[in-house]
Amino acid sequence: MHIMEGSSDDTDAVKAVIEAVEDWPEDTNRQPDMIFVFHSTAQSPDIVAACLAERFPDALIAGCTTAGEWQTKQHQNGTLVLLGISTDSIRWGVSVLDRFNCPPAKAVQAVCTDLTQQLGIEWSDLHPDDYFCLSFFDGMSKQEETFIAAMSSELGNIPLLGGSAGDDQQFEKTYVIANGKAYENAAVFVLAETKIPFHTLKHQHFIPGEATVVITRANVAERVVYHLDGIPAADRYAQLLGLKLEELEPQVFSKYPLIYSYGGECYVRAVQQIGKDGSLVFYCAIEEGMVLNLCEHQDMLAEFDKAMKKLVQNTGKVRLLFVCNCILRDVEARGANLTQLLVTKANKVADNIIGFDTYGEQWQGLHINQTMVALALGCK
Predict the structure, then answer these.
(1) How far apart are CA 29 and CA 118, in angstroms?
(2) Sheet harboring 372-377: ordered strands across?
(3) What pLDDT does 64 receive?
(4) CA–CA separation, 94 vs 35, rounded Å?
(5) Do residues 208 and 293 lie in contact, with contact meaning Cβ atoms separated by under 8 Å?
(6) What is the rounded distance in angstroms from the CA atom of residue 304 to the CA atom of residue 4?
(7) Are the beta carbons of 112 and 155 closer than 8 angstroms?
(8) Half-sphere exposure of 245 toward its Cβ, with a 13 Å CA cutoff?
(9) Closest by Cα among 262, 372, 359 to 323
(10) Using CA atoms, how far apart are residues 269 and 42, in angstroms rounded to an integer?
């Protein structure tokens, strides 16, 4: 497996792509089969997508806009990062679910048919040891829960993970990228058939605390909570924390998310922002009547160390670590000056890293928050 990396902080998308690939080999036999692209709002997604497709007409391309970029040896903001893979041991398929304008089951069936036709396989050929699927969603679409659940149902036990695109915390427009185009209100799925071993990872550093609240009034479709325990949501959240309303800001949201327990598992429900009406806007699904716990915070670095050690125990050293990391994890890490240390620790496990900070993470059939999901590829 030959891996190529590149990055640029040039705000001109054409120049950024040229700079990022300037050291990639010209030999046609070593051109990438698959390219992953993640970039900030500083570069135009339409131009990035078109330039990559023009430069690499035979490669499949997938990615999205971000709230931060991960690459080998460094975490960045405001940049474009690329990773190309060339190998005879992996075959790839890329398909776009555009506009979310038909029932989820029908939409994902069409995507899965497209993916299996690209790979020239039957649905019965899929096996969890030989296939994995990556997902990238428009992070402002609010469609992740329904469509990732449908995709997981269609895939069965095939590993499925990914992230929702960001826009540097502007919360205006996010884009996914596939094969020469940038899309809004869409998702991109990458199905891989691999002879190279892989391992998936889900990591968070929160457990349920003792304080509980009930969502008593909400706009479920927009993920907006108006009342907790019958009290304006932002006011009640501030009360739980012993803070004033004006003290609520992203660092607080990252340190004190809420958590939903179901079936013996815990799923974080992270606050995105406070509405002008005193509501709380969440990053993923909420429902009226849902009981939430105020999270108990564990040491981020210590828990990350445990996760990386466990990964090595399970797999040995990794050739490539593909990372989807919640933006609020990055907010917390930056506040504690841990961002670069986390990347350094990940690099002790993996030779190469690519990924991005997300507006939500997909894990199997769930859309979750305040979590890092990862794919370790090429375990030794």
Answers:
(1) 21
(2) 74-76, 69-71, 350-358, 318-326, 372-377, 198-203
(3) 98
(4) 11
(5) yes
(6) 27
(7) yes
(8) 12
(9) 372
(10) 29
Residue linked to tokens 């990228």: 177
Which residues contact residue 264 at a Cβ distance below 8 angstroms, ignoring those fewer than 6 apart?
none
Give the three-class secondary structure for 254: helix
pLDDT tens digits, 120-142: 999 889 999 999 999 999 999 99
Q: How far apart are CA 213 and CA 41, in angstroms?
A: 36
Contact call for residues 296 and 208 (beta carbons, < 8 A): yes
SS3 sequence, 257-322?
CEEEEECCEEEEECEEEECCCCCEEECCCCCCCCEEEEEEECCHHHHHHHHHHHHHHHHCCEEEEE
Task: Return the closest-CA partner of residue 70 out of 31, 40, 106, 34.
Answer: 40
| CB neighbour list of residue 275: distance below 8 Å, 6 or more residues apart | 224, 234, 281
Q: What pTM did the predictor assign?
A: 0.89
Residue 120 DSSP symbol: T
Distance of CA 250 to the CA centre of its chain: 19
Backbone region of residue 263 per phi and psi (left: phi > 0; alpha: psi in -120 to 50; beta: other values):
left
The Cα–Cα gap between 261 and 266 comes to: 4
Q: Classify the phi-psi angles of 316: left when phi > 0, otherwise alpha if psi is within -120 to 50, otherwise beta.
A: left
> Using CA atoms, how far apart are residues 103 and 56, in angstroms rounded to an integer?
34
Q: Which of 155, 159, 101 is nearest to 129 (CA)?
A: 159
Q: Please state, in angstroms and as integers, the Cα–Cα distance from residue 266 to each residue in 116, 204, 259, 289, following that order.
A: 33, 10, 6, 17
Mean pLDDT of 303-315: 88
- Hey, is 219 helix, strand or coil? strand
User: What is the three-class DSSP state of 75?
Assistant: strand
What pLDDT does residue 127 have? 94
How high is the pLDDT of residue 380?
57
Please give the single-letter amino acid code of residue 163.
G
Question: 359 — phi, psi (to 5°)?
Answer: -100, 20
pLDDT at 251: 86
